[in-house]
Amino acid sequence: MLSFFAAISVFNPQLSVLNAQNRDVMSAYQRNMQPLLEKVNSAPTDNERYNANELFVQLFDEALRVDDSFEWQWDFGTSVSVLTSSDRQFRIITWPVVRDNGEYECFGFVQSYNAKSEQYDVYVLHDKSDEMISASEQVLDPDNWYGSVYQELIEAKHDGKVSYTLLGWTGVNAMVQRKVIEPIMFRGGSRPQFGQALFRREKNLRRVVLEYSSNAMVNLRYDQQIVRTYENKKVKKKGRTINMQVPREEKMKMILFDEVAPMLPGMEGLPQYYAPTGTELAYIFRDGRWELRDNAQGRLSDPKLNKDFQPLPKEDPAYKVK
């Protein structure tokens, strides 16, 4: 059970507290887990890595169930991803184990607040991604998780409600890697649900999955960018009305990602032959949904990721729709 101060800190992070005794307990867990994690990352055989990981998971599970453990700041460097929502509703912790054959299996926990019990519940995540068909359309739970190491947590608000979206990556195997845009929500108090119909005009889409060659580099990130969009207008010109598109530039936050496709004809459905096409797509949060903008190209500061726009014309910026 959370202490009174820890419980109200869910709504006021300034009041978070971890008493001295629990700090010592959590510090001891971290010290004992660190050498196990080093074995997970560098032991020479699958058997050694998985044995170390089993103990690592066991200790992590115990530690997350310690009173006020949500207040502890885990630090495993870049080996373990720890993302916490700003409203302190939940924390998600993920990491991979790499097999000798190059295959990845992801592990993790969700620690989420249950308002009814006034405590944080703990859920172990079980990676079943290698068993899934049509993963982009499925609603999943901790026991059937589309394993990823999450790199960003996006909190988007509409009408006072917060929607959470995760950006993740995993190596899959020696030939394929994957990035995902993964909505997460909580049902029944605190139980996480992965995948949600947040994608406008894409009826069956619950998550965006990008699978591509292990040799390719694919951009996926949440950022504020200057983008060019187009507005349809009817304009009278030379005595007749025609449809025109008028370009304009605006600054907004968005999920930017590279479109991926087969490098050669006939390779459809074989992700080891997929690579970026050179087209950048964007999801923009509008009216509680992620809206795909295939004509919204971010102006990135890194020239390797994107080219500068051609300047907008100073006169008659509209052009005729073909």
List the defining traits of the structure above.
five-stranded antiparallel β-sheet; 2 domains; mainly beta; 14 strands; 42% strand; 322 residues; 15% helix; disordered C terminus
DSSP helix fraction: 10-25%
Structural class: mainly beta
Number of helices: 3
Q: What about the largest sheet? A: 5 strands, antiparallel
Mean pLDDT: 86
Parts with pLDDT < 50 across at least 5 consecutive residues = 1-16, 302-322
**Amino- and carboxy-terminal Cα gap:** 65 Å
- Give the CA-based shape: globular
Summed up, the domain count is 2
Radius of gyration: 23 Å
Number of strands: 14
Strand content: 35-45%
H-E order: HHHEEEEEEEEEEEEEE
Give an overview in words.
The chain contains three helices and 14 strands. The strands form three sheets. Strands 5, 6, 7, 8 and 9 form a five-stranded antiparallel beta sheet that branches. Strands 10, 11, 12, 13 and 14 form a five-stranded antiparallel beta sheet that branches. The chain has two domains: 1-79, no CATH class; 80-320, no CATH class. Residues 1-16 and 302-322 have low confidence and may be disordered. The chain is globular. It is mostly beta strands and 322 residues long.
